[in-house]
Amino acid sequence: MNSFMIDKNIFKYTFGNPIDTETICLEGEKKDEQYIKFVKLEEGEDLNLIYKMDDSDIVYGLGENQRGINKRGYIYESFCTDDPIHTENKKSLYGAHNFIIIDGKDKFGMFIDSPSKVVFDVGYSKRDELKVNIEDKNVNIYMIKGFKPKDIVRKFLKIIGDTYVPPKWAFGYQQSRWSYKNEKEINDIANKFIEEDIPCDAIYLDIDYMDKFKDFTINKKDFPNFKEFVSNLKDKGFRLIPIIDAGVKIEKGYKVYEEGIKNNYFCSDKEENPFMAAVWPGRCHFPDFLNKDTRNWFGLKYKILTDLGIEGFWNDMNEPAIFYTDRSLKEAIKSAKDSEKKNLDIYSFFDLKDKFTNMSNNLEDYKSFYHNVDGKIINHYKVHNIFGYNMTKSAAEGLKQIEPNKRFLLFSRSSYIGMHKFSGIWTGDNSSWWSELLQNIKMMPSLNMCGFLYIGADTGGFGNDSDSELVIRWTQFSMFTPLFRNHSALGTRSQEPFAFDKTTTNITKNAIKIRYALIPYIYSEYMKAAIDRNLYFSPISFEYDDEISRRVENQILCGDSIMLAPIYEQNAKGRYVYLPEDMLLWKPDNYLSKNYKVVKKGHRYIDVDLKEIPIFIRKNKMIVKTEAALNVEKIEDKQLNIIAFVEDKAKYLYYDDDGKTYDFKKGRFSTIAIEIEKVEDDFKISVKNKGNRLVKKINFEIIDIEGKVYTKTISLEK
Ligand code: GLC
User: Fold this and answer.
1) What are the protein's UniProt keywords (predicted)?
2) What are phi and psi of 50, to 5 degrees?
3) CA separation (Å) from 564 to 177, 338, 618, 684?
């Protein structure tokens, strides 16, 4: 083992000869410091890190995973998995996010930079023991010291690089379904949004837009005039977002396939033939995304669609998902044939059944193909968790070559820490269950801790039929997630905002409009988090360190000023909320609502009607909103409206930029620094504008600690 010091709080330990995942961007200097002393190292066939947990310890992190914000009590396996049934017994989802933070007697963070399987047993086998099992002993481990979990997270975010920033329009509402099947159906959906006056910025193209599910092709029968269609929809205010899958169909004459074969761009099997696995189109090959040349080739294929006017993509099935291989199919068929004449009993019947279920995403298959990484042949199993990461890196690098200074929308299903540099993620195939909404709420801060900022779930739930109340309550939470998309599976009930009754349409419309009115706040908070390497969502304990805040799992902070206490239960007309300090409750049912109420510190029950959204504004903080519009680009920021809850002094930094390019990285953005100070019976406001030419007027509603409202206006024009 070698140890390095990256800075005085971060130590790197290298075991063996690890694969460079390119997650960490900094190198350290050699040093003997044994910070790893917190954990006991146990070296056998695998490497184990063991930490004795104190009763008071909270364990944060692990990004996209089941269960609580506090991960104690369960076991989590980092092994990217295509599993759409997210019941509590599942140990892996689509991402591998090996960052964990211990907050208690000791305080430290630990990042296991291994693209192979890593298991985090957080007091599951032994109640007071955290055991991290690392299968591949060639690994880099990073230990991070800090006084508070938030400091530790921020130090980690500093070493993993800048997060992806989407175009500003991607903060608008987005409508998806597997699948809107043809031009007419999509036009009807778009027209319905316009007719109902519901804001929407994007409509999704799921697998049926392709010709026989072949990447970078168009199904000409259903989309005969694709380019014109894309452009007409854009004129109406909607961007079209096509899906791209990891598997390339094996078909003579299909260009992507032919080029891949000719240039050896696909993963290979033991015999050095292209590895075959079946996904949507039937038999496919997987591009070897760990290979630079393949990445460059595949990434530039996105140009076929950008040339047709496309400005955003979602990368899917990139764990990679496998339906079956020739091997698993043959085995299952043989078992079926062998069973034909047998009297199947409990054991043999279930054996047979398992043969079929285990055809998909089978470990034996993952162990049977290879990558060529700079001439070195590596078994897939060893690098499984960075396959989707590299597919998305390929897309991002391709798009960068296609239009270097343009921000594209890009997000992926599978991920590994470090992929946040290239795209966002969505949380995969959830179900239309209330428990998934609560899981969604808990997952958001954990994902931010791992660097992923552009995140969101399938609002309303993907699998199974949704219902109007679930769609409403889910929309009322997702309106705060950077990626705000309603998506549902083939064969399920429609769940667009207008798919139910008039009341549901009106309530969801108002929630979506509040989202648009809040874009000045949401975008400012997102961009400040991206630039300063900070969190957008966090557990309330990251700001309030009282004992009760450390226990709260169903309220989260959103940006610097808001505490969310979403409704996630059927028929709920309210909920209990814990307030670590006095806060201002704004419960809008439309973006112009003015029903402010000061809620005193402590445990409170609040009524929340179906149409209301409980937004708590923290003490000495403010939020900024504007007029809603049908698209993000149509929002006029001429007037900002501030709601502030001020005891003595509050500050806010409003951020804006062109929303389209990376010029903000060169300092081309504007800010308005707002300060409100209580002076005797009134409030003094100071506004410092740095380069914002759009905002002409700021209207203030300042609510004091007694609930008295003061209204003021400041004009920014000279
Ligand atoms: C996968 C995706 C889902 C998509 C479906 C069809 O299940 O996760 O979002 O709709 O494939 O492409």
Assistant:
1) Glycosidase, Hydrolase
2) -120, 130
3) 28, 57, 10, 28
Each residue's pLDDT tens digit, 271-302: 999 999 999 999 999 999 999 999 999 999 99
> Of 233, 214, 202, 412, which is closest to residue 308 (Cα–Cα)?
233
Q: Within 13 Å of residue 73, how many CA atoms lie on the same side as its CB?
A: 10
CA 320, chain centre distance (Å): 18
Q: Which atom of ligand 1 is nearest to the CA of 243?
A: 12
Query: What distance in Å separates the CA atoms of residue 506 and residue 419, rounded to the nearest whole number?
Result: 38
How far does the centroid of ligand 1 lie from the alpha carbon of residue 179, in Å?
A: 9
Residues 422, 390 contacting (CB under 8 angstroms): no
Q: Is 711 exposed, middle or buried (0-12, 13-18, 19+ CB in 10 A)?
A: exposed
Among 243, 411, 431, name the best residue to mutate to test ligand 1's pocket (greatest count of ligand atoms within 8 A of Cβ).
243
Q: How far, in Å, from the CA of 81 to the mean position of ligand 1?
A: 13
316 CA distance to ligand 1 centroid (A)? 7
> Is 514:590 a contact under the CB 8 Å cutoff?
yes
Tokens, residue 190: 């778009």
Catalytic residues: 316, 319, 429
- CB atoms near residue 270 (< 10 Å): 10
Which domains does the chain show, CATH number per domain?
2-160 (2.60.40.1760), 168-190+201-323+362-426 (3.20.20.80), 329-359 (no CATH), 522-715 (2.60.40.4040)
Q: Which two tokens stand for residue 715?
A: 């004009």
pLDDT band at 1 (very low <50, low <70, confident <90, very high): confident
**429 alpha carbon – ligand 1 mean position (Å):** 7
Q: Which of ligand 1's atoms lies nearest the C-alpha of 314?
A: 9
Q: Which of 3-7, 371-375, 401-405, 555-559 has the lowest mean pLDDT?
A: 3-7
Taking CA atoms only, the protein residue closest to ligand 1 atom 7 is 429
As for ligand 1, residues whose beta carbon falls within 6 Å of it are: 178, 206-207, 243, 316, 413, 428-429, 487
For residue 25, pLDDT over 90 is answered with no
CB-based contacts of 463: which residues, under 8 Å, 6+ apart? 84, 85, 429, 430, 431, 432, 489, 492
Neighbours of 34 (CB within 10 A): 11
Nearest to 99 by CA among 83, 78, 82, 80: 78
Pairing mode, strands 248-249 and 118-122: unpaired
> Mutation test of ligand 1: which of 317, 426, 483, 490 has the most ligand atoms closer than 8 Å to its C-beta?
317
What per-residue confidence (pLDDT) applies to 343? 95
What tens digit of pLDDT does each residue of 67-102 get?
999 999 999 999 999 999 999 999 999 999 999 999
How many whole angstroms from 177 Cα to the centroid of ligand 1? Answer: 9
- HSE-CB of 169 using CA atoms within 13 angstroms: 23
Pick the residue whose CA is nearest to atom 5 on ligand 1: 178
Tell me whether residue 184 is exposed, middle or buried, using C-beta atoms within 10 angstroms of its C-beta: 0 to 12, 13 to 18, 19 or more: exposed
Q: Is the model's pLDDT at 497 over the cut of 90?
A: yes
Residues 6+ apart with CB under 8 A from 297: 259, 260, 263, 265, 287
Taking alpha carbons only, the member of 119, 135, 116 closest to residue 380 is 116
Residue 535 phi, psi (nearest 5)? -95, 150
